[in-house]
Design brief:
Length: 449
């Protein structure tokens, strides 16, 4: 879509400027990218947007102090000014003895392209994206009960990055992304409701047809017609496949090294303890080919690898970058992430939770009476105690069958208890960075009408 600047040369120039300004250690990140998106409404083009640019970021370390600066102007003068400003800021920053660059012996090799993170062909034309969005919109409109399509969108993006550090690391990779989405509306006035569907892939050939995405958005929306409040009480709750990753996301946040080092997590003393029922594994694998969240190395130049966060229900380890690992007396899990203007912090890539044996349909039949949650609105979650409360919408189940759609309700519980009362369906999704099946949690508090 465009000719990128030489990102490797930019990072080398930044590191030279940092050394000249007096930095003891430094790392430099250059990120370039381009995107194209189209949105349609009523069978016509509503909006088209194209963007491209390059951002450079510099982090300097001086005597246990650090500072980060970033810019989108790429001249040598700008880089010198960035380096001087970063060094001046670092000298005034508080001391943190845990800050460090990676040991050179642990650095990742240059990326060889094995993860297939970027399509080799040029991106789609605006006409191709327009056609995909129109096809998704038309398919959604064909579903009985859909009144109008709020929007249908198709987009493509490419992002190139190169990371270089003063201790000898230098590598980069590119990532492409194709996406299609649709949002449909049913009902009118106060009885209006909406739902959506979306898919994203690294490679265009892995994308489902636009019609299947639009049709799913329409079917989900039509099922929302006539939503009302459910009864209040203690009930089992099914977290639909769309929202189940959020529940596991709270567990992932609780084992993040930043929270653990501060003691601000409801799992701060849970290492080696059971946090999920027996039989559940929670695996991170940042090296899945063609996955949008995969990465050959982390933001500190360490090689990524698959690891078990939870094995047979027992917590195996925290998610750590170098600084949080040093604070806890452990080794980094190569989990550092960062943007051009921010320092590294721990984060996860591709997550997979063990599926169960029953289908979601069988789970609903066995439920008897309870709630299926398909979307959330707002939340109140205490990261230290794990107390959980979220506004929800979905479907009420009676006699093992969906009775009617619901909205304007709240579910509550405590995450430590909720996760220990969890069972999983067998519908582990494909192509998701957080692959989590439909989940059932017993004994939650529901506040409805």
């Amino acid at each position: 879509m465009r000719d990128d600047p030489d990102l490797q040369a930019l990072t080398a120039a930044l590191l030279d400027a940092a050394r000249s300004a007096g930095a003891e250690q430094a790392d430099a990140l250059a990120v370039g990218g381009a995107s194209l998106s189209v949105e349609v409404r009523g069978g016509r083009l509503e909006h088209a947007e194209r963007a491209d640019g390059t951002e450079i970021g510099l982090r300097v370390l001086i005597g246990g102090r650090q500072a980060c600066v970033a810019a989108s102007e790429l001249s040598p003068q700008t880089m010198r000014e960035m380096a001087e400003r970063a060094v001046a800021m670092a000298r005034e920053a508080p001391v943190d003895d845990a800050l460090a660059l990676a040991d050179p012996s642990q650095l990742a090799p240059a990326y060889d392209g094995a993860l297939e993170l970027c399509e080799l062909a040029d991106g789609p034309s605006p006409e191709t994206l327009l056609d995909a969005a129109l096809r998704a919109e038309a398919a959604a409109l064909e579903v009985d009960g859909v009144r109008v399509i709020d929007s249908a969108n198709a987009a493509y993006a490419r992002r190139d990055l190169f990371l270089a550090t003063s201790n000898g690391f230098g590598a980069g990779f590119a990532r492409s992304s194709h996406s299609i989405s649709a949002v449909a509306i049913t009902g009118e006035g106060t009885g209006m409701d909406r739902d959506w569907a979306a898919e994203s892939r690294v490679w265009a050939q892995d994308m489902p047809a636009p019609e299947s995405i639009g049709r799913l958005a329409g079917e989900r929306t039509a099922a929302r017609a006539g939503a009302r409040r459910p009864p209040t009480g203690a009930v089992p709750v099914i977290f639909d496949q769309r929202v189940a990753p959020g529940l596991i996301g709270h567990l992932l946040s609780a084992v993040n090294g930043s929270a653990v080092a501060r003691g601000a997590t409801w799992l701060r003393d849970a290492m080696g303890e059971r946090v999920l029922p027996p039989g559940f594994d929670l695996i991170e694998d940042p090296r899945l080919p063609r996955f949008g969240a995969s990465r050959p190395f982390d933001a500190e130049g360490l090689p990524t690898a698959a690891r078990a966060i939870v094995r047979d229900g027992v917590l195996q380890g925290w998610t750590l970058d170098i600084a949080t690992a040093n604070k806890l007396g452990l080794q980094s899990t190569a989990s550092a992430m960062r943007g051009a203007s921010s320092p590294p912090s721990p984060g996860v890539s591709n997550i997979r939770l063990s599926p169960g044996a029953v289908t979601p349909e069988q789970m609903v039949r066995d439920l008897g009476r309870g709630l299926i949650v398909t979307s959330f609105l707002g939340s109140s979650i205490n990261p230290t105690t794990g107390d959980y409360s979220r506004g929800a919408a979905g479907f009420w189940v009676e006699g093992g069958e969906i009775a009617y759609p619901v909205n304007e309700c709240t579910i509550a519980g405590n995450l430590r208890d909720m996760l220990m009362r969890m069972t999983a369906a067998c519908d582990l999704p494909d192509w998701r960075s957080h692959a989590v099946p439909t989940l059932l949690v017993e004994g939650m508090t529901l506040a409805g009408g």
